[in-house]
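Researcher: Batch entry, complex prediction.
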Amino acid sequence: MEKHVVVILPHPDDEAFGAAGTIARFREEGVPVTYLCGTLGEMGRNMGNPTFATRETLPKIRKEELIAACKVLDIELNMLGYRDKTLEFEAREEVAKDLLARLEKIEPSLVITHYPDHAVHPDHNAFGAAAIEAVRLMDAEKRPKVWAQAITNTRVEDIGEADISIDITPFFEKKLATIMAHTSQASGVLGSINQVAADMEEIVKKNLSVEQFYTWNFNK
Amino acid sequence: MNVIDQEKVQYELEKFLNKDVYIHIETTNGAYASHHNEKAFNVGVFMRNAKVRYNQAKIVGNPTSYRVGLKTENGWIYAEGVREYEIDEEGHLLIAGHDQEGRLLVTLEISENPFVN
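Model: Structure tokens for the complex:
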């Protein structure tokens, strides 16, 4: 059993779409989970449908949605205060040092983050790379495992099949509730994932019922 | 946000004439554009808290797509495809265009104080 799981992802809702089922499973086992959320998704373009947010109100709205989503998942939330769409321009080693200090305090046994260069959004790639760098900087014996999530369309041909595949069907309701907590993003993101299916529940079941990760190899 | 009333927005734009103002200007088709459609190409630009003075401002076009141009001391600021506007609680003038699903495509915002968040 894991001792403590830390999720390191840059945007409010990344945890919902990518890892909510896995997180719910850990929580059911009684494993503490901490979410280090990089930004407040200030630059998101989904403004609700119909539109209810503006560029200026979005950070506050997404912060509240994030807090609500973490309540659904029953996890600890740390907001790191970076700015959306700028993570790849930050000094990688500074972000890694920030994450390292937090990891040394929490002493997790597992870190979940994005797979650098295979996570589509530049913030995902940059934050995943910083998270992995932070773990690499830890003493080898204290180092948590890292599960990296790849979401590019070419991931299988580029890096092979994921070695961890979790059927999250038993936690489907919790995942859907987590996604729906991100009200301003939910319909926009789900609509992009599947433009044919009209029903949110159907989209989530069809496209998001398996969560896959690659165990990061620090010796390669 | 409200559907643009050309006269009202013109009036609001002119309130900032010949003052130091802060501009947020942005356009985007999202970080996932080419992920969801390989023929698409990700584009986007944003500038936040650019400090400028403009001495001429005009909103032209029609309800399907307005254009806003600001003539500054040394050049121009321009946004196309805006359809909504709002004066928010902080007194910012927010002008934006969204697609049919409510996603932001373009925005131009003007404030006498720097945007804070």
